[in-house]
C-alpha cells in the first residue's frame, strides 16, 4: 500500500488545525500509519528541505519550520501521495482552490499550513527522516 509523509506546520498547529486536517484525510478513506507532535531541529530541517538549499528563502524556511511544534504523520492508501497533494492545494495559498486545505486556511506561501511528499521517492526519504519503521502500524491488507 502506498504511503506518504504529511506534516502540519507550526502555523497549522498553533491555529488549532490538527483535528480539522487529520479529519479530512480520515474521511477521504486514508489510514493514519504513524503520527507525532514534535519540534524539528535545525539539522533535520536542513536535511528535510535539502532540495531548496540554493533558494533565496531557504533560511526563512528553516527558521519557520523550527519555530514551533509540528505534527508529523504517515498516511497510507491508494494513490495517497498525489491525492493528498490535491487535497492540500497549490503550494501558494493564493492559487489554491477553495475546498483545499491551503485554499481554505492560508494566505502566504511561507506559512502554508501543511507539507506533503511530492513523489514516491520523496515519501520514502521523508518518512525515513521522521519515523522509525517500528513507529508505524500495519493495517489489514484487505481493508
Ligand atoms: P512545502 O511544500 O513545505 O515545501 C517547500 C516550502 O517552501 C513550501 O511548502 C513553501 O512553504 C515554501 N516556499 C515556497 N516558496 C517560498 C517563497 N517564495 N518564500 C518563502 N517560502 C516559500
From TrEMBL:
SMART domains: NDK. It is found in: Cytoplasm. GO terms for molecular function: nucleoside diphosphate kinase activity. PROSITE patterns: NDPK, NDPK_LIKE. Residues 1-138 form the Nucleoside diphosphate kinase-like domain. It catalyses: a ribonucleoside 5'-diphosphate + ATP = a ribonucleoside 5'-triphosphate + ADP; a 2'-deoxyribonucleoside 5'-diphosphate + ATP = a 2'-deoxyribonucleoside 5'-triphosphate + ADP. Its EC number is 2.7.4.6. It holds the Pfam family NDK. ATP binds at residues 9, 57, 85, 91, 102, 112. The keyword Ligase does not apply. It is an enzyme of class 2 (transferase). The active site is at residue 115. Its cofactor is Mg(2+). The keyword Mitochondrion does not apply. PANTHER family: NUCLEOSIDE DIPHOSPHATE KINASE. Homotetramer. NCBIfam families: PRK00668.1. Major role in the synthesis of nucleoside triphosphates other than ATP. The ATP gamma phosphate is transferred to the NDP beta phosphate via a ping-pong mechanism, using a phosphorylated active-site intermediate. This is Nucleoside diphosphate kinase. It comes from Fictibacillus iocasae.
Amino acid at each position: 500500500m502506498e504511503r506518504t509523509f504529511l506534516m502540519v506546520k507550526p502555523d497549522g498547529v498553533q491555529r488549532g488545525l490538527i483535528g480539522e486536517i487529520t479529519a479530512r484525510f480520515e474521511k477521504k478513506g486514508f489510514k493514519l500509519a504513524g503520527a507525532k507532535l514534535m519540534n524539528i531541529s535545525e539539522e533535520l530541517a536542513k536535511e528535510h528541505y535539502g532540495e531548496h538549499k540554493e533558494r533565496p528563502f531557504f533560511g526563512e524556511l528553516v527558521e519557520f519550520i523550527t519555530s514551533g511544534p509540528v505534527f508529523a504523520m504517515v498516511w497510507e492508501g491508494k494513490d495517497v501521495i498525489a491525492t493528498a497533494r490535491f487535497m492540500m492545494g497549490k503550494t501558494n495559498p493564493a492559487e489554491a482552490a477553495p475546498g483545499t486545505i491551503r485554499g481554505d486556511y492560508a494566505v502566504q506561501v511561507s506559512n502554508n499550513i501543511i507539507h506533503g511528499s511530492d513523489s514516491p521517492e520523496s515519501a520514502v526519504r521523508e518518512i525515513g527522516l521522521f519515523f522509525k519503521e517500528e513507529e508505524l502500524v500495519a493495517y489489514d491488507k484487505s481493508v
